[in-house]
Amino acid sequence: MLNPTMQAMVVREFGGPEVMRMEEVPTPQPGPDEVVIEVKAVSVNRTLDLVVRSGKYPIRVQPPLVLGVDPTGVIAAVGTQVTDRRVGDRVVTSLIVKPFGPSAPPVILGVHVWGGYAQYVKVPARITFPLPDGVDFPVATVIARHAPVAYSMLRDDAGLKAGEWVLVMGASGGLGSAGIQVAKSYGAKVIAAAGGDERVAAAMALGADVGINYRKQDLTAEARAITGGRGVDVVFENISDPELFPRALKSLARGGRLVTAGSHGGGTVPLDVSFLYLNQIMIKGSVGTITGEDLALALGAAARGEFRVIMDRVMPLEQAAEAHRLVAERGGLGKVVLVPPAV
């Protein structure tokens, strides 16, 4: 039996971290094909939390809103038509509640419908996936958010092959650290690029072959030197910084591919079209595709100790505003995860 009310961090107007306030609100009830999850962990994401909260997200968002795109937890209630999930199941979630339509953007959990900054969250049963024993909720939250996107971008969008060189930008971040491990699992050689020596070292510890501090070193020159002057085959990008993006692009060999799934570095970048067409470069934007198969692959590897995350800290949901400030300041190393009050 669900409690009639729950604690949730509600955004009723756009602005700074202080617009998030803990409130007592009605507990959601499942529709026929839905489940209600008691949330055990949810991560803080730069674009899908901080930018959405600020009111600057490029797709329309309407307050009041509860953020949180990647909650994990335990199923507390199931709808009448749900047959493959039971109360007590440990699950992770996908953030895409409704995929892209022919002329419509996707519906995203924690952006267009209330998300996981709460004691409970209601989602369609089809976007939940089993969480194996041996993986705790904070780790599972980070893996579920980033690993399937990394698989999709590198395998499907970039067409990565064994033996190719991959330049991973933002290599110590959630998506970057997943990209390193996914690329290595396909037999690629990885250059981990990050904005600090400590960040490069953390990325190297995940299996990258070489590291570059792009705040101290010439990214293009270093990447070309590492590859014997040829350049890398793939750039795995999720920053879109106006200074770094052109340098990453020019690190590519002829016929190289750049895939990007982020814009927290600004999003508007200069583009050398002459370099692009003379070297037959492909650039592709991607939101990634989250599948149960890829989630099971990554979570299974984590349960065996073969897939790791870089986590800065775990904080109570009541400190969400402070967590947003920490992420905005970029002072930590790895993901920040929030834990709601126990029910």
TL;DR?
With 343 residues, the protein is of the alpha/beta class.
SSE diagram, text form:
Elements: E1 5-11, E2 20-26, E3 34-43, H1 46-54, E4 72-78, E5 90-93, E6 96-98, E7 107-108, E8 120-124, E9 128-130, H2 137-157, E10 165-169, H3 174-185, E11 189-194, H4 197-204, E12 210-213, H5 219-226, E13 232-237, H6 244-249, E14 252-260, H7 273-278, E15 282-285, H8 292-303, E16 311-316, H9 320-329, E17 335-339
Parallel strand pairs: 10-11, 10-13, 11-12, 13-14, 14-15, 16-17
Antiparallel strand pairs: 1-2, 3-4, 3-8, 3-17, 4-5, 5-9, 6-7
Helix pairs in contact: 2-3, 2-8
Task: Characterize the structure shown.
By secondary structure, the chain is of the alpha/beta class. The chain has helices at residues 46-54, 137-157, 174-185, 197-204, 219-226, 244-249, 273-278, 292-303, 320-329; strands at residues 5-11, 20-26, 34-43, 72-78, 90-93, 96-98, 107-108, 120-124, 128-130, 165-169, 189-194, 210-213, 232-237, 252-260, 282-285, 311-316, 335-339. Helix 2 crosses helix 3 (174-185) and helix 2 (137-157) crosses helix 8. The chain is globular, with a radius of gyration of 20 Å.
* Element string (H = helix, E = strand): EEEHEEEEEEHEHEHEHEHEHEHEHE
Number of strands: 17
Helix content: 25-40%
Strand content: 25-35%
Our measurement of the CA-to-CA distance between the termini, rounded to an integer number of angstroms, reads 12 Å
Class by SSE composition: alpha/beta
**What is the 3D form?**
globular
Largest sheet: 7 strands, mixed
Q: Low-confidence parts lasting 5 or more residues at pLDDT below 50?
A: none
